[in-house]
Amino acid sequence: MQNGAMKAWLDSSYLAGANQSYIEQLYEDYLTDPGSVEDSWRSIFQQLPTAGVKPDQLHSQTREYFRRLAKDSARYNGSINDPDTDAKQVKVLQLINAFRFRGHQHANLDPLGLWKQDAVPDLDPAYHNLTEADFQETFNVGSFAIGKDTMKLADLYEALKQTYCGSIGAEYMHITNTEEKRWIQQRIESVVGHASFSSDEKRRFLNELTAAEGLERYLGAKFPGRSASPLKAGTRWCRCSKRWCVTPARTARAKSCWAWPTAAA
After folding, report:
1. Which CA distances in Å does 184 have to 139, 221, 239?
2. Which of 5, 131, 199, 261 can pair with 265 through a Cys bridge, CB separation 3.0 to 4.6 Å?
3. CA–CA gap between residue 206 and residue 240 (Å, rounded)
4. Residue 101: how many CA atoms within 13 Å on its side-chain side?
5. Pfam families annotated for this entry (predicted)?
């Protein structure tokens, strides 16, 4: 037993830790030129599994690569975030949300300028601790659907005012259906509050509004004393008046039947 154990130890003594560097160098020499090592070592290296395995790389080159990587301090610079910048980014997103919630309260709905608007503090960048120096900085705009991922704060602030504080006030953040809310956001923010209609579409809108107003005036004169403010119903009244006026004209035998509401109703 002792002789067998000694023989096994002698047969594997070359694998001792002290010989690691020597064997590793031999293996690298074998990878570079198999004929440069002794036949006994070449026979051992040839017995290593190679089927379906990529050839070994030189370990000295791998170690040198990681040594250079550890000394390269530039690779750490891009992953460090400035806490102050992150805080400013949060403030910018809060400013965008403030315009979505309260921008309609500061919309320009009085072309004559007779109505004095109350100040809305949430719409002031200073309310969110954003300074004049921040106006030249670039921030992520989040879900603001303007077609850009980042903008200067000065440009973003102007876009928000044009979108939510122009001649149209958009109040929709109370809607509980997220899909409907995003649908409205996409359409008013993508055009910065200025919908682009063709000349033909604008003329059609004018004709329908004129026809609806004419019908309202006629009904008011025909039935005095009745409630007469249907245009306040907006597009629904315009659609009804269009159907009443156009459909009977296209079908001669069609008759329009409607009931005018009483004042009590």
Report:
1. 24, 38, 21
2. 261
3. 16
4. 10
5. 2-oxogl_dehyd_N
Q: Tell me the domain boundaries of the chain.
A: 3-48, 89-190
Task: Tell me the pLDDT tens digit for each residue of 214-236.
Answer: 877 887 788 787 665 555 555 55
Neighbouring residues of 221: CB distance < 8 A, sequence distance ≥ 6: none
Whether 169 contacts 117, CB under 8 Å: no
Q: Which CATH class is domain 89-190?
A: mainly alpha
* Residue 31, both tokens: 């990878």
What's the burial of 244, exposed, middle or buried (CB within 10 Å: 0-12/13-18/19+)?
middle
70 backbone dihedrals φ, ψ, rounded to 5°:
-70, -30
Considering the entire predicted model, what is its pTM? 0.52
User: 162: which 2 tokens?
Assistant: 């044009």
User: Maximum distance among all alpha carbons in the chain?
Assistant: 127
CA distance 98 to 51: 64
